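Margin note from the TA: students keep mixing up input and output lines. Inputs are the sequences; the output is the structure of the whole complex. Example:
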Amino acid sequence: MNLLWLGDPKSFDAALVGGKAANLSRLARMYHRVPDGFSLPVAVMDEAHPLDLRDEITCAISDLMACHSLPNFIAAVRSSAVDEDGATASFAGQHETYLNIVGADAIIQAVIRCWESARSEHALHYRRQQRLSVERPQIAVLVQQLIPADVSAVVFSAHPVTGNRAEVIINASWGLGESIVGGTVTPDTFVVRKSDLAITSRTIVDKQHMTVSTSGGTHEVEVPRFLRNEVCLNDGQILEIAELALTLEATMEHPIDVECAYAGGELYLLQCRPITTLK
Amino acid sequence: MSNSSTQAPTAGQSIPTPPDFAVVWDDPRDAKLTWMSLAQFRTPVPPLVHAIVGAFLVGGNAGFEQAGLPFQVRVARINTYAYIGMVPKAAPPDAVMKAMGWLNRTAPGVFKMIMSKMTAGMSKQQLDALNPIIERFESYWYDELLPEIQQHLAYFESCDLRGLSLDQLRAHLAEALKREERLGALHGVIMPMLFAMSEFEELYCELFEGVTTLDALRLTQGFDNKIMEGDRALWRLSRAARSSPEVQAILSRHAAGDVILALEKSVESQPFLADVRAWLAQYGQRLNSAFAFSEPNWIEDPTPAIQNLQAYVAQPDLHPEMEPAALVAEREKAVAEARAKLAGYPQPVVTRFETLLKAAQVATVVHEDHNFWIDQRTGYHIRRVIMEFGGRLAQTGTLESANDVFYLTPDELQNGRDANLKRLVQERKAEMEHFSRVTPPPMLGTAPAFEMADGGPMVRAMFKGELSPQNTGNADANKVKGLPGSSGVARGTARVIHSLAEAGKLQPGDVLVTAFTEPPWTPLFATASAVVTDSGGVLSHSAVVAREYRIPAVVGTGTATTTFHDGQLIEVDGNAGTVRVVSENEASDAINPQSAVENPKSHEPALVG
């Protein structure tokens, strides 16, 4: 048995499944809509031949489809390093992510690429900078359902620049979150005052790009004109996101940044990390 | 300054008129408006026809109102020609207009910024007004508009014209004109159909890389409509004719105008003749052109239908375009591909795409069906009323002939003293005769102070329909550039056709070259290998029907009818929107085997048959 399910208490151990997966496993216990999935713990990278995993992954996919009544399982495959997502070093964007991956074979290919990327010069350089071990980078891989986001949001429970902790800042735009995280779109910005959950500001901008799933991957495309200047979250959604951020902040006892998405009217929690740069 | 009329008018200035077309304005304020010659009326229009057209077009203002457009139209008969004028709803003061014109010349950057603000405002207004309509477009047409149209038609049908007294007939004429105005309004509020087609086309081209407008419209093709239904029924008649040697002989030996008489004399042809009459009863309630009230309808004179039958009979059995299966298959494939590509897109994009696709598909049907119900059938009934009235006036000696009624205005027909009418008719005829030798300027009044770069989505849609720019700058003697209207490349002998009366010269495989086409012309599309028009855009009637017939079309060339002449072998590239002369005097034999070689329809032996 090589796989560990997200939410399984064994997955809380960052030494086994990496910081990202451990974190998400704990989140999955707190909040019911974390996209379901499983991890390939660090040991697998060294011990198991990827092709031996094929049957197990195939089985896991069927289980996930049955459990969530999915017509097919579309995966996001991400690396999860043992020492990332700590309170001091956020590995945001330092390891590979493969989106819109369908089928056991494609998932295995993505897993192998995650392992390889852990040894990439780029990753090692970052690790050196952060004074982390470069001798044996230990990488787990997280395979998670890709949420077909209509709108994605990045949320800060404290202002990431001014450090103001009285407000929740929400950046949101159309499609998958990559365009916001990657900075290729200027998102709408909403500010919610924590004390009374009042929406104190809405800045609706011309959102020119979005990331969408295309066959075998994702692609950044132009947002059609009719949608560009439309507000991407309604007030109810803004407040739902703000409340989620407040709950997570209280649980983690630290200001946090959150990645989340709306799909089919439901809010999904994709990631939650302590804000490491806060003064 | 002998050619002042041909110079481009100066923005905001009074448009000079040629000496033979001096204009006396009834209301001096009219001189401040811009008046355009109507494409349908390049010849003098009799007063009664003008009055009906006026009622219809002014009724159509309901469409502009509904779309939130800031203008209304008026119709004027100027020197016997019909002109349409745009009247701003809330005209900015002259000073503002002048200032805008000045800005445009001196500070184009500032002007552009103001214009783009205006466009954004207008766009929002139009979208807010029209989106709710196209979201329920199917029900809007079938449950709201069509039943009322059919009520008006039922009213006309139920009326026993012969049984009415002269006074009752006079009152009935007034009622008919009132209903014509209402039908004009119904016609106007169908315009969201162009908006639906245009919005869909624009969204599709935005969403998918490397696609064209024609690719987008492929997703809307192959739905049956009343015009294609009539054309197909006529085609089936031609198959029946081919199965009867007697009928076939009559159709091939007699001139179109003599065919009915010959059929009546032939015992063997009686079942076929009954079928022809049944077709005419169902599909012959049409005029040769939307406003050709003073010409016989097809039931009175079925010559245009017979000409089409003769051309069809000359073609062998297989005519795939008469069966929409291929169109449907192509459409369904394109729809499935688009849906697959959009599967990973945010829901608002998918929802908008599906809404517009559905609306555009219904709109493509309504584009033709409304013509069948309103333009054709209403025109047919209006003419019947007028002709009955004219006939009575001729019987009583008030007029020389029934047709003279067209030379009088509705007011004269309602209130005029009978003794004066004959004299008025003579004056009007003389006036029209005089002006028939004069070329009406395309524009009168005052040139617009500036042009909106983009008047918003509804205005864009209208330009893709009938309002394509007339002046395309084509100056080459051997080729023209227009707009791609229907894809494919075909070669054939050019036949320049100005009216249905000339349609008989179109032989199978020829290229139909004309100013614009109207639904009564569509049976010709089964004979033509391609269509080229002077006016109309990608959403015009010619283009829509050419796509249904899967023949190439180039539309909105501005100059095709004056560039090409009968007998030239021309090549029509419906993808590029170009037409060129291949050889000067090719194909004196009407059926040119070469045409089949280059023709996407070459799988059908019809063209070489």
